[in-house]
Amino acid sequence: MDAAAPHVVETAAADLADRLLAWYDRHRRRMPWRALPGETADPYRVWLSEVMLQQTTVATVGPYFRRFVERWPTVRDLAAARSEEVMSAWAGLGYYARARNLHACAKAVAGDHGGAFPDTEDGLRALPGVGAYTAAAVAAIAFDRRATVVDGNVERVMARLFAVEQPLPASKALLKELAASLTPEARPGDYAQAVMDLGATVCTPRKPACLSCPWSGACRGRVAGIAEDLPRKSPKADRPARRGTAFVVLTRADELLLRLRPARGMLGGMHEVPATPWDSKTGWRADPDDHAPVEGVVWIALPGVVRHGFTHYDLELEVLAVRLRDRPAVPGGQWWPLDRLDDAALPTLMAKVVRHALGHLG
Ligand code: SF4
Asked: Which pTM value belongs to this model?
C-alpha cells in the first residue's frame, strides 16, 4: 500500500459507509443479543455477548447467552448471583478468568452505577475486566458512539480493502487507523456490526465472495488479485508445551475424587481431578509420586494422553487411575457421584480427563 492510500480512500469514506450500511440493512445477521431494526440495544445483553464471544464462536455462545439472560435477565440479577452459580453456568466456555471478571463487572455496574452501564468508551474501560475491544464494542453497539471496533474480521476486511501487505501483528495499529478513518458519524453502532458481518459472511478468510460485496469496486486487494492472501501473518513461534500427571481415583460405588483449585491462577476456584503442577519451559518436571492424593495404592497408567490448548501453551496430561473399595481420607478432597458430575461444573480440561479415564476403566 502506498503512503497516500489512506487519504485517497478517505475521500470516499462517507460513500463506502453508506454502501455498507445499505448492505447491512438487507443482510444483517440475526443474533439473540442483537436488537432488531428500530429497537434500542440493551447494554447488558451487548456487554454479555461481547464478553462471551471473545475467543469463541457465535454458534457456541448462542445457548450460553440464552441460558444466562433467562436466569439473570438484568445486570442487577447477575450481580446478585452467587459466584459458584456464575462459574457453573459458564463452564465449557473456557477462559474462566473472564467469568470471574464478568461477575465483578456486574457487581460494579449494579453497585457503583445504579445498574446502568456507563455510556462512553472511557467509562466502560474503567469497569473490571473491560478491555479496549469490549469498551469500544459496547459504546458503539449499545450507545451508538463513534467508537472503532476492531476484531479479526475487521482486520481482514481492512487489510484487503486497502491492500495492506505488512503482516500481522505488526500491522495492527495501521489496520485500526484505517478502520477508524471509515467509521461514520451517523449510525456508528450499525456500522461496527456491519463490518463484522461483512467479514464473517462475505469477506471470509478463504474464497471471499467479492461479487456480493458492497465494497467490491473500491477494494484494492481484489483489484490487485491478492485479496485471499491477506492479511499476511508473521510465522508463528512454536507454542510452548507443558506436561503433567492427573490422578483419577474412583470408588467401587462410582464416586470420583475432586478438589478445588486455588482461587487465583489458571482455572482458579474450579473443581479439578488432583494433578501434579504442570511443568514449564524450563524442563523441570514434577514427580507424580510427590503429588499423588492417595498413598500405598497401585496406579494404572492409562494409555495415551489428554491434550488441551490454553491461550499461551498446549498442555498434555498423562492419567494415572485407580479404583478403590472405600473412600480413603484425603485432605481437601470431595467425593462426587459420577451421575452428579454435571453439578461440579468441571472445566473442559478436567472433563476430558474424566472421559479419558472412564473410557479405559469402564
Ligand atoms: Fe473482501 Fe472481496 Fe469485499 Fe474486498 S471485495 S472487501 S476482498 S469481499
From this structure: 0.71
Cell numbers describing residue 244:
503433567
Mutate to test the pocket of ligand 1, among 182, 195, 216, 230 (most ligand atoms within 8 A of CB): 216
Burial class (CB in 10 A: 0-12, 13-18, 19+), 4: exposed
For the CA of 215, the closest atom of ligand 1 is 3
Alpha carbon 292 to its chain's center: 33
For residues 318, 323, 326, 332, the Cα torsion angle rounded to the nearest 10 degrees is: 10
Element containing residue 314 per DSSP (H, E): strand 314-324
Residues ≥6 apart with Cβ < 8 Å to 109: 75, 79, 115, 116, 117, 127
Per-position pLDDT tens, the chain of length 362 = 444 444 444 448 889 999 999 999 999 999 989 988 888 899 999 999 999 998 788 888 999 999 999 999 999 999 999 988 998 899 888 777 788 899 999 999 999 999 999 999 999 999 998 999 999 999 999 999 999 999 999 999 999 999 999 999 999 999 999 999 999 999 999 999 999 999 999 999 999 999 999 999 999 999 999 999 999 998 877 777 888 999 999 999 999 999 998 877 778 888 999 999 888 755 567 778 888 999 988 898 888 899 998 888 889 999 999 999 999 999 999 999 999 998 888 999 999 999 999 988 76
Question: What angle do helix axes 96-112 and 83-90 make, rounded to 10 degrees?
Answer: 140
DSSP H or E stretch at residue 176: helix 172-182
Q: Is the CB of 216 under 6 A from ligand 1?
A: yes
Sequence-distant contacts of 203-212: CB under 8 A, at least 24 apart? 203/153, 203/156, 203/157, 203/160, 205/156, 208/160
Ligand 1 site, residue 160, Cβ cutoff 6 A:
yes
What distance in Å separates the CA atoms of residue 352 and residue 341, rounded to the nearest whole number? Answer: 13
Q: Where are the beta strands (DSSP E) in 197-254?
A: 241-251
| Cell numbers representing residue 133 in the block | 475491544
Dihedral in degrees, nearest 10, Cα atoms 279, 283, 289, 293: -10
Distance 52 CA to ligand 1 centre (A): 28
Residue 9 CA to residue 173 CA, distance in Å, equals: 17
